[in-house]
Write a structure and sequence with these properties.
oxidoreductase; signal; alpha+beta; metal-binding; 15 helices; globular; heme binding; four-stranded mixed sheet; 467 residues; iron
Length: 467
C-alpha cells in the first residue's frame, strides 16, 4: 500500500502528460478540420482547369451565376494553373473587403496591365472642380444641340437615332476633353479614329505621347502658369524627376491617361444605353421621370447639375439601372497576399478573387422581384442604399481599397445626360416594338442590338437654338 502511495505522483504526472498530448492532438486535428476548402465544380481538365466552362453563348457573369445556383454563393474554379474564388453574396463580399480588405488589396499581375498600361504604372487621380463641371455641361449641351439639329432635318420633326453611338461619342468626348483638352465631332469622319483609339497599345501610345509633347511645349511657352486639363494637372503635380514604383513621370502620365481613356467612356456609355433601353420598355416610368423634370425644372429652361439633387426619381432610375446592369458585372480581379478564411473556407495565398456583382444585385433574398425594373425600390425599402461601396448588398462600382475612383464623375455625367435627354425629347421605339435587351459576351455587358430611338423635340425651338 505504501509503495502504491509513493507511485501516485508519478502516475499523476503521466496522466497529466497524456492529457496535454490529447488536447494538443485535438487542437491540431481541429485546425486541420477548420481548413475547409470552398466547393469546386467537377469536370476540371488537365492544364485548362475549368476554363472550358466559361465559353459559350452567355455573358461570363451569367455563366458564373448559374454555377453559383448549384454550388452556392462561394466556390472555387481552376483557371489554367490559377485558382480563383468566386463570391456572390453580400456576407461573403463583406468578409472579403472588411476583415480581409488589406489581404485582397493586390491586383493580379496580368498581361493587360503589363502591355496596355505600361506595366501597371497608372494611378487614379480623383480631381474634381469647376473645370471638370464646365466640361460636362458644355459637352452635354453640344450633345443635345447636335441631336436637335439632326432631328430638325426631318420634315415631321421626328427621326430615328442610334443612341448607342451617340452615347459613346458624348462620353468619349467628355473623357478626352478632360484628359487632354481635345474634342471630336459626333458626326463625320472621326468615327474610324475613335475606333482606332481603342485598338492596340502601340497606336494609342503614339497618340497619347503626341498629346503629352504638346502639353509640355505649351507649359514652356506659358511658363507653367496655364493649367486646364488632366495632363496639365499631372505635369504640375509630378516633378520632372518624379518616380513611382520604378516608372518615370512620362510613363505615369501616359499610363493613367490610357486607363481613363479606355475605360472611363465605355462604362458610362453602357450605363446610359441600358438606362434608356429600360425606360423605353417601361414607358410609364419614362413619363414619370419627365413629369418630375417638368415639375422641378419646367419647360422654360434646361435642367442643370444643380437641379439633380431635387430629381429623386431620376436618381432612383440610375441606381436601378446600375443594379441590373453594373458597369463591370464582375468586379476587377483581386489576389490574396497571404492565406486567409472567407466564410469559414481556407483561401490559399495567390488565389484570385472574383466578385459577381450581377449575381449579387439579383439575389432574391435581398431584392424583391430582382429581374424587374422598379426604381421605386430605391425610394422605399432600399432608400438607405447608395453607390459608394458602404452597403455590401449594392456595390455597382465595387468596394474596398480598389473600388472605382471615378464614381462621382460617372454619376454626374449619367445624371445630367439622361436628364437633358428626357427633358428635351419625347422618346419611343420604331413601330412601337419593345427594345431587344440581348446582352453581348465577355466581361462587360454590352448591348448586342443598336438602340434605335424615335426622337421628337418637346421644348420650344429657342431653347435648342440657345444651347
Amino acid at each position: 500500500m505504501e509503495a502504491f502511495t509513493q507511485f501516485l505522483p508519478v502516475l499523476g504526472l503521466l496522466l497529466l502528460l497524456l492529457l496535454c498530448h490529447y488536447k494538443r492532438s485535438i487542437r491540431n486535428n481541429t485546425k486541420k478540420a477548420i481548413k475547409l476548402v470552398a466547393p469546386e465544380p467537377s469536370g476540371a481538365l488537365p492544364f485548362l482547369g475549368h476554363l472550358h466552362f466559361l465559353r459559350g453563348q452567355a455573358p461570363l457573369a451569367r455563366v458564373l451565376g448559374k454555377i453559383a445556383d448549384e454550388y452556392g454563393p462561394v466556390y472555387t474554379l481552376r483557371l489554367g494553373g490559377r485558382r480563383a474564388l468566386v463570391v456572390s453574396s453580400w456576407q461573403m463580399v463583406k468578409d472579403c473587403f472588411t476583415t480581409n480588405d488589406r489581404n485582397f488589396a493586390a491586383r493580379p499581375n496580368m498581361a493587360i496591365s503589363r502591355h496596355m498600361v505600361y506595366n501597371k504604372a497608372g494611378f487614379a487621380l480623383a480631381t474634381y472642380g469647376p473645370y471638370w463641371r464646365e466640361i460636362r455641361n458644355s459637352e452635354v449641351k453640344s450633345f443635345i444641340n447636335e441631336l436637335s439639329l439632326f432631328s430638325s432635318k426631318k420634315a415631321n420633326k421626328a427621326s430615328v437615332v442610334d443612341m448607342s453611338k451617340w452615347f459613346e461619342n458624348i462620353t468619349f468626348n467628355i473623357t478626352i476633353k478632360i484628359l487632354a483638352g481635345k474634342r471630336f465631332s459626333n458626326t463625320g469622319g472621326n468615327e474610324g479614329y475613335v475606333k482606332a483609339m481603342k485598338q492596340v497599345a502601340k497606336e494609342v501610345d503614339e497618340v497619347i505621347g503626341k498629346w503629352l509633347d504638346e502639353h509640355v511645349q505649351k507649359r514652356k511657352e506659358y511658363d507653367g502658369e496655364k493649367e486646364a486639363d488632366f495632363m496639365d494637372v499631372m505635369l504640375s503635380t509630378l516633378s520632372k524627376d518624379a518616380e513611382m514604383y520604378g516608372h518615370g513621370r512620362e510613363t505615369i502620365i501616359k499610363a493613367t491617361t490610357m486607363v481613363l481613356m479606355l475605360t472611363g467612356s465605355e462604362s458610362t456609355a453602357l450605363t446610359l444605353t441600358w438606362a434608356l433601353s429600360l425606360l423605353l420598355n417601361n414607358p410609364h416610368i419614362l413619363k414619370a421621370a419627365q413629369k418630375e423634370l417638368d415639375m422641378n425644372v419646367g419647360k422654360q429652361k434646361w435642367v442643370e447639375e444643380s437641379d439633380i439633387k431635387n430629381l429623386r426619381y431620376l436618381q432612383a432610375i440610375v441606381k436601378e439601372t446600375l443594379r441590373m446592369y453594373p458597369p463591370g458585372p464582375l468586379a476587377g480581379p483581386h489576389e490574396a497576399i497571404e492565406d486567409c478564411y472567407i466564410g469559414g473556407y481556407h483561401i490559399s495565398k495567390g488565389t484570385r478573387l472574383i466578385v459577381n456583382l450581377w449575381k449579387l444585385h439579383r439575389d432574391p433574398q435581398i431584392w424583391s422581384d430582382p429581374h424587374e425594373f422598379r426604381p421605386e425600390r430605391f425610394l422605399e425599402e432600399h432608400s438607405d442604399l447608395n453607390y459608394q461601396g458602404q452597403n455590401f448588398e449594392y456595390i455597382p462600382f465595387s468596394t474596398g481599397r480598389r473600388m472605382c475612383p471615378a464614381i462621382t464623375f460617372a454619376f454626374q455625367v449619367v445624371h445630367l445626360t439622361l436628364a437633358r435627354l428626357l427633358q428635351g425629347f419625347d422618346l419611343s421605339t420604331p413601330m412601337g416594338k419593345p427594345v431587344d435587351m440581348s446582352e453581348g459576351l465577355g466581361i462587360a455587358l454590352p448591348k448586342v442590338r443598336p438602340l434605335e430611338v424615335i426622337m421628337t423635340p418637346r421644348l420650344s425651338t429657342e431653347l435648342y437654338q440657345n444651347l
